[in-house]
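HUMAN: Mind sharing a backbone?

ASSISTANT:
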Amino acid sequence: MAHFHSTSELIELTVTPLQTPDPSMEDDGFSITDTPIESVSLSDYEKQLASLQTYLDSVPYATESVDEMHRKLEEIVGKIYIAAKTQNWLVLSTWDGLLQCWLLMRYPMPKSTRAKLVRLYYELSLIPGVEPRVIRSWTDMLSRLLANKPGSKRKLESTDLELPWKPLWRALTKELWPKKRIQDVNRNVVNILLYVAEQCKRYFPAREILEMLDTFLPLLTEDTVLSVVPVMTSFLPPTHMHLYIPALFKIWEAFNSSVIDDRILELAGLLSEEHISGNSIDAGDKGDTQWKDVGIWTHAEWQVLIGKGLNSMNIPVGTQGASTTAGHADTLSDKDSLRIKKNINRFSAFAKVIVYSMAVDGEIRSDVNQKGYVAGSRALDSLDRVITSTESFFHPSNTGQWTSTLTAFLNRLAAEFIKRVKEEQQELCRTPVTRRLTPAIRKSFVAILRTPALLAMFSKDRTSASYAQSSLRVMAILEPGMVMPELLERAYGGLEIVNETHRTTAVLNMLAGVALPLVSESIDLNDPSKTMCTTMFIVSVVQHIKLGDLTRFPSGISYSHDTDVIMENEYDIGQGVDTAIPALSQEETRSLVRDTTASFADWVTSLVRRILALYENLPEEGGRRNTTGGKQEEGVLKSIKAMMDVVCLHLSDELFDLVLNLLYDYATTNAKSNAVAAFGQLIACMARVKPDKTMSKFLPHCILQIEEEIKHGASSVRTTSSHAALPSDTTLHWNKTKSERGYTSTGRLIMRTLHTLAETYPTNSRFVNADVWDDPVFNKDHNIHWGRLYNPEDVVIEWHVPNDDEVAFVLEILDHVFLPAIDKVENLLKTTSRWDNVDRNDFCRQVAMFSYVYEQPKETVNPCLNDTELAEMIAVPLDMKAGFTLTDASDPRYQKAAAYRLRYGDVCQRAAFALRQKIGSEDHIDAVTGVARAIDTFMLGYGLNRSDLDSLVKNYDQARDANRFWNKQRENSRLVFLKRAQVYHSGRVYMHSLYRRRSALDDKLLEELVELSLSPYTRVRRLAQHVLDNVCGYYVRSTRFILPSIFDALGKGSDPDRMKGALYVLWNKGTEEAVHTDAYSLATPGVEAALEDLIAEFSSNLVDQQLLKAAVDKTLIRVSRRGEIYDNTVSSILAVATQSTTHWRYVEMAARFLLLLLRRDAVTPPEVVKFFMEQCLSPQPPIRHIAQRAMIKVLTFMKLRSYSMSREALWLDEWRNPLAQDVEITNPENFMLGFDESLEFTGGLYVDKIRTGFLAWTSVIKAYRAVEDSSGIQFEPESQPCLTVIRSIISNPDYYSKLLLLWSQESGKSGGTIELRKENILFIKSLVKVLEQDGLENLLVNIDSSFNDSDKFKQRASAEVLSGILRGSKHWPKTLLNNLWTWTMPRLDRIFGQIKPDTITFWETFFYVKYFFSLFLGSAL
């Protein structure tokens, strides 16, 4: 791969992070337990170094030292320090991306450094007033640093880090119970903060568990239980469980809730696994968990666990219904509680509870003693009873919604059990021998699960069948003698007699995991599902063996007892089991295996012929993309290609020649138009194994046929768009040109040739190292190596690294293919106005010949900085060594390739400009789309893109998981470690694709892409928008660069197609985020402390003091500029909204924008308040609804600013009403008795809400003082102009009458009951709460007459107004309150007299205690 990258001085900043590394490739994203065995005694840091070395040794080039990477980390952390210190959160997010890139390289980080970075991101996640997406990015980084993945070794223990829980609880409280009137339904930070708690709870001090309980339990009521229980399970540390488990279990027993079931089951599973050894390094003194009746649980707790776990499976009881109503009960609970969401695998948790509670803890049940327990384990006995009671639901004939539930539980039981078995085999296992699993427990466990798994294996639901097959695979490893005979008996029946199709596929999938026979008869196009299952099975078998005849060689292995060669994973299958399968000795088994290999030649021949027969029966190409058939046929072809890759790779030399001759004979005597691509893939499988032999066999014939076909006119019809292949071109395509199909195929050939020559990639993926494969001894007895597993350090990977000859050949191809093509394009660009069909075809053909030529050094000519930003704070790419070929800018080869690339980009830009000027008809569309693709190649054909990396990671994950039985398994197949090395190498290459700089040429190409994105032709526009979206994801500040052009396209008078294209570009999520800017000015003491603590981890050069000073100076400008931008934005929108000529739809949009722009930390301009008050009388309901919401928000923010003692209190909703006082609760009974005393208006405190006391009481309860003669609340002076505007508007006698007239209009919805409208009540409540008696008399006069009116809609409007007045008068002075009730009480009789069946619903709501009587019933304390 050619590389034209250099580390230069300046790299631009993007407003938001660009393409970031794949989330699946996090710090342990492609890991295997790879620390060498001899490093058990090393320190954690030394183990990390040993693990790193296995990765570095796997790539074929020199890599960075640990010291080099530490310097890179110091540079990244230094910029993070400056960005956090200056509160420039969006710049900080770009450096977060660089830190994530650093973590992906897997270099070790000292624990102290990691702990302090965790503390920093923990504090960042708690900052109030920051956008949720920014908080989410910090939370993600916190998780990556902690790397607390289930089953993996933790990076930090509680002894390395301690975090305070109270700041997190303080931030979470606001999100749990937000103030309704200002709640943003789209802001759901509560889940993010609970995730932070779950990640960090291990590091909360266990000594504060009791204080946590004192904080959480008093808040638990029947309304808040679904909020408080998730909080408790998220916060409580996994130590000292005796302090909180009894309380949690009592709560669990008392409530019927699936949310609580999931949360506590998950916690119980975590604790069972955590305390399997009875003690914990995190627990400290007096924190060890003691073993009890069943594991760490008492008998009563165990009964609750088993009962709740069984109920959660939703198995029907009787003829219908389910065993639990917990899910339905949750839907009837508080809606705010349902905002808390988490995907919990309850079956995994339940399985953990059972498996990690197993031990010999009771009497062993036997034929003599029926009172004991299965294998002497109470937990295993409970599992036996659970499986016995549900066994009938595993049968395929009893399929239902419970099937996937039960099989998932079965799968997790097997996975957790083998994980525990393997853990107890480790040298460092801390579980006492007396608490470990015994052979009897293991056999009994398999015996219990075997029958239901065998039943569910044939389930018609694929997911359920896969769960059962996975569990059988584990059981076959645990006890093969008990499982394999049963499996093979069913396998023979499923393969020999096809009674039901799904039984055959089920058997094939099952055998892929547990057995090694061979089949090929299931390659059948009429049954795509069976064919794909067959290919998967063959791959799973052949990737672990060599296909070679052993009977031709005498064995060099002695079968005596003293032999040193022992077949790995050898089991005595069938011993002691009542089965028809005979028990064979080791010598007999190996003799049979050797004899069986004689049939490999017949099997391979049969397989290849079966595939060729399938190809002949493929449908002809067609459809929009000219594919071979539909999705099923394409899936079959892909699976066959993957299978043949593996089969060809593991053929012996003799069998390879056999297959090669077979394919050559077929290729020279056939030309199938429906199998051109498929047959080419088959030849490619052969060429990847032995390219020299394959090329020498096929190339002469292909050259001869191509020349002959072209000579006779093949591919002579000029086309520029996709089309069905002409019958006359079949032979040409078969052998591999003016048609689109011809020149695109040629282009792909050139591209693959260049990639093969210039890229670095692994070359040998056989199941053993090359030296073993080539060893003559191996060829005589390769059967003893079948299924061989390797340790990471034992794998020797062969890489293709471009040599000088290959680089020279690449440059020669550029000279002879690229140069003539680009010359031709340049000549054609001079005559675009006179193009005919021949010219257009020539242009498209030559553009398609443009090949990948890679990046060159470049300087940024337009970094898109403003006066609030610093060039030194712009993110730089993580420059990693990645095996690039050309890196020396003085190398003539480098200069030649760079010159070609510059010319290529320049031609693309000129072509795009020329065609954009001349695109007068659809004749040019193919040419324009070709140029757009060429620009895509030029700008993104460097390094590795995100989708390709995702594909590699996914492929590696699948291969790794297919061959391991638990997540800490160190050994795996050689192929897995080869894929891991490829992923690691690709990750290094990917680093060079991120945070890329823009040159002047790149800016011109971006401008052309923008213009193409605004094209009047949909096909061009969509393609260009897709390319532009990708480019903006990799090039720094590209979004900011294109925005002016996009906004210009939205100007008045623009073409509708251009406007549509611009809106689509802005609609893109990445563009939307990039538009956002932010400035922050609150104090962040927690972040400051974490930053100062972090400095000690690095050298004195960590922070550039001059840069820090410059950044601080820019902060003041940024904050000031944000205020100016905000004011200008509001003024501009308001100017449009208040124009008399503005259509009401645009007024609605403007009102919505202004609503979203309201700020709690700034006074709303009086002009905006006036606009909203006037729009409350709009005849358009949508505008009126928005205006009322806005006024509610304006008045609420006004109150919050007036009540808050600090800006931090304002953002955390910790404001306090001046009339509020805390009442100490010393005796709850006496406190409650106080509500029976008579009311006195003066001299007492009034309590209107009691949100505690269900389980426990808070130490204080908020009460309010009664207001005497004058108002006890004074609003901030800055808001007085707004209040003046409101008073002047409502003083108009017609205002309330018009408002009531609008509210009294008949609803547009027909039928249904009439309900009070919450927004109307809150609007009146907010007004009277602030204005008190101002305008009250006018309002009461307007509703008085409506009480006698028979119109139900007028009655509803009056009820809404009166309800709002009564609710808003809570803190009125005594005189005003008495006057209000004096007016209200006589009218109650009139109200009752007018209540009718069609109005009773909203009057009941009005009189309901929550809305009415609670307003004047209180307690004088």
